[in-house]
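Weekly modeling sync, notes
Attendees: S.R. (lead), two postdocs, one rotation student

Agenda item 3: backlog of single-chain predictions. S.R. asked that every request posted to the team notebook include the full sequence so nobody has to chase files. The rotation student volunteered to paste the first one in as an example of the format we agreed on. Action items at the bottom.

Example entry:
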Amino acid sequence: MTRIVALLDANVLYPAPMRDLLIQLGTRETYAPRWTNEIHREWIDALLRTQPQRDPQRLELTRSAMDQAVRDALITDYAHLIPKLDLPDPDDRHVLAAAIHGGCSVIVTQNLADFPADALAPHGIERRHPDAFLVALLTADPDAVVTAVQIILDRLKHPPLTLDVYLDTLRKIGLAHIAHELDLRRDAILANVPITRDTRP
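Predicted structure, as returned to the notebook:
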């Protein structure tokens, strides 16, 4: 089965729980996530603006870990496409340029209005909200998504993270639909099955 190749906008990498779930699914090859150094710079700079207490070096380590965890995730050499593109905010053109150059079929973003469908269609690209994107992945491969959530819950133990707290966190960051679908699969998530530990971001 051909995997979806998806460009992750900076605003879906900014919230750590959203980033964690998307990357965990990428490392399990549920889909093929893509990003750029410019997208990295945007989400890291946004975090440092809103949370100035954050350690920039730790964020840079997270950035490096992401690049190492997902094979071929980093898109480069797309700048030549930027002047040819038209979007409501010209500063967003680098995202579309990277998606085109990287062979992406989807841009995952919380700001759907920034990427009008008629601007993406000529390039064979769709825009998807992360909530809808994650529900689609769950529908296509429920076992993979359940296992990814098990790994996250198993890894986050300081302090321990319960499923209820995790689902509430997802709802608070705009992932209400995937939280609902995961809640329906609570027995599978909490089943006493071997979980492979994963220290990726």
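Discussion: group reviewed the output briefly. The chain has two domains: 5-129, 133-190.
Action items: rotation student to repeat for the remaining queue; S.R. to check formatting next week.
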